[in-house]
Design brief:
The protein is of the alpha/beta class. 42% of the residues lie in helices and 20% in strands. Strands 2-1-3-4-5 form a five-stranded parallel β-sheet, sandwiched between helices.
Length: 127
């Protein structure tokens, strides 16, 4: 079975490192961490992850802008995107941009793992 790739982008390096640790120690995945939202779109195109986890509020390029760009590209239009944010209106903004799922910060580790399972390890999600 091929190892799945997840790209995590958050301007808070500790969040990226936490998600890398949790996901790589509990699931058969490779995590690509990125803290610079200005380069994440190109990294997604280059790395071709099976799932993207994005912060919503980042300087320069916001998570919803990245989701909109992904949805506009036929190559990435159906790529599952989980948005995480402490923004009060985060869920509404994320889903309006085209994200598949949303988790509020601070997030529960079990909720993150459940979302990863839903998109990468269950037969219920057709890419």
């Amino acid at each position: 079975m091929d190892t799945k790739k997840i790209l995590v982008c958050d301007d808070d390096k500790s969040i990226v490192e936490l998600l890398e640790f949790i996901l790589e120690t509990t699931r058969d995945v490779d995590v690509i961490g990125e803290v610079d939202s200005r380069v994440v779109y190109d990294r997604i195109l280059a790395e071709k992850p099976e799932l993207v986890i994005l912060d919503l509020q980042m300087p320069m390029v916001t998570g919803d802008e990245i989701v909109q760009r992904l949805r506009a590209n036929p190559e990435t239009g159906r790529l599952p995107v989980l948005v995480i944010s402490a923004n009060r209106d985060g869920k509404q903004v994320a889903l309006a941009a085209g994200a598949d799922s949303y988790l509020a910060k601070p997030f529960d580790v079990e909720d993150v793992l459940q979302e990863v399972n839903k998109y990468l390890f269950s037969n219920g999600y057709a890419k």
